[in-house]
Fold AraC family transcriptional regulator.
Amino acid sequence: MQVFLQTKGLSLESLQEPDFRFPLKWLNELVPKNNAISRPVLAYQFGDMVRLTSQGNLSLVFMTSPNIRESLESSRFIALQSNVVSILFRESESAGYLFIDISSGSRFLDQIILFYCFAAIRRLMIAVTGLNPVCNMRVTFEKPVDFDLIVPDVRGHWSFSQPTNCLIVEKSFLDSRSLFADPIEYIVAKRACEKELATLNETRSISDMVCKLMVHDGIWEQAKAAEYLHVSKSTLKRRLAQQGVSYSALLTEVRKKQAAQLLTASDASVQVIAAQLGYRDQSNFSHAFKKWFNLSPSEFIHDHRKGDGS
């Protein structure tokens, strides 16, 4: 690693500088040259080097929040720093769930970014609270051969080949107070992040805006989405086609992802979740879900609606 960084005019200390960003393209250069280091090992090592900093509004929100619940909720602002990572926090009666979605366009990079995120978030939670929480991780990838060498210090359980990428923490840990809590700093930094995110949303592609309407506003019908976007239905269809996608494809993708998250981290019934996803008939939702995951919604709940990561 040190040799590689030297070719870029950097050092290991450079990685800890507040404004430093490690370009994704460097990972493509780095990994093939280091056959002794597997992708997850490399990614986890990077993530575990993350340190708290008061530089930037995102860091300030995470640090100065009143408790770790608010810190995890603020992870959604990661969109201000990365256009390939999205994080969503959900809470049930038994646990807190941080869903991590990676879309770099490369399975190789997705795996690296995901393990980096798991390690970095865990390290930041320890730094903010002074506690070492039990973290259960669910990963969509297969288990790496040498994985047991990667995380000997992690308290928790890892599950692989899962339907979602998710970090789970115990409900009681969510109330843990931040060592750096500052109500005024928190409010100011959060408002700044909200403003930046709103500005960013205005520049998003039409497909991103459609997905946002589905996820955040519960707009599932194409005609209604077109109305909200102030375009005709035919114009919306044409603009999506220019991006190589269709409304029905986006609808299926979002519903599938949201269904897995809600059935995992929500205490709501299958009927309620089906309605939240725009299904008028629960049986239609159940049929679609069975097609996606080869499990009925009730079977999925039995296997995944637990806080133990198994």
